[in-house]
Amino acid sequence: MKPNDFFTFNGGNELSILPKCAILFHQAKGLSDNSYGGQDFVASLHDFFVDDSKHETVIGAGRLLAKEDIEAILQSLLQMRQSKVNLMPSNIVSLSDNHIAWTVPEKIRPMLFNIIGMPMQKMTVPWPRLLLVANRNGKLAVAAVKGRNRLSAKTRLFHAPLMNVSNNGAVCTGSATVPIECGIEDLKQWESVMFDTAFSHVNNPSTLNLGRKNKEVDTKAHYRFWQALSKKGILAFPTGQLVPMPRSLESFIQEHSR
């Protein structure tokens, strides 16, 4: 079934389009998994006909469509769109309608801290190379990576050595303004959520390897780590203090892309 199956085209001096049929979507409340397709909605196809007595077009009774029919119709509509070539920047790792994953190179940047009981602090520190994943649900995730090579399925991920990040990489964005979209043109806004907001507390006590017997790192120890890097003028993040993350690149992106 193709989009043209839904219309009749009349030629002549002026082109007119008359509807032939319509698809109606119905919410399938209360249907069990044993019902029609076990889906949340069903679709029906209805023919149009002319009611001569009323001189108007009327929609007729419908027949249910299979899931495959719906997918075929939607696919044919997508194929009608004018194709557009988009060149991917080298830092893009993964992209879909619902998410974008990209890398940010290691760099000397400011880092803000807003820890309870302390005045707001701003330090200039070496950030490690990061993998960021943003999705349309307003969620942001981050992991650290070593080296400068393009990421692949074999790339090893590490916990981002940052406060306000959980052990699975999810970022607590707090009151930050989160972008609505997650396209290539929105990357700067997402990066601002990461780099321009203040860190307040440690969410993941295993985010840093400080060589202690007790491997857990609290907020004060985390703050002192960054303070030391700033005071010493360290120009590159000490990657030996990164903690491996028990997730593959693919699973990390999949987890945070929805």
- Label the structural class: alpha+beta
Report low-confidence residues grouped into runs of 5 or more.
none
| Element pattern in H and E | EEEEEHEEEEEEEHEHH
Helix content: 10-25%
Strand fraction band? 25-35%
Distance between the termini: 31 Å
Biggest beta-sheet profile:
5 strands, antiparallel
Instruction: Estimate the mean pLDDT confidence.
Output: 87
Strands in their spatial order, largest beta sheet: 6-7-10-11-12
Number of strands: 13
Q: What is the domain tally?
A: 2
**Tally of alpha and pi helices:** 4
Oligomer designation: single chain
What best-fitting shape do the alpha-carbon axes yield? elongated
Radius of gyration: 27 Å
In short:
The protein has helices spanning 67-80, 187-195, 219-232, 249-256; strands spanning 7-10, 16-19, 21-27, 41-51, 56-64, 92-95, 99-104, 107-113, 121-127, 130-135, 140-144, 158-159, 198-199.
What does this 3D model show about the protein?
With 258 residues, the protein is of the alpha+beta class. The chain folds into 2 domains: 3-80, no CATH class; 92-256, no CATH class. 17% of the residues lie in helices and 29% in strands. It has a 5-stranded antiparallel β-sheet, with no helix packed on it. It starts with 6 loop residues before the first strand and ends with a helix. 21% of the residues are buried.
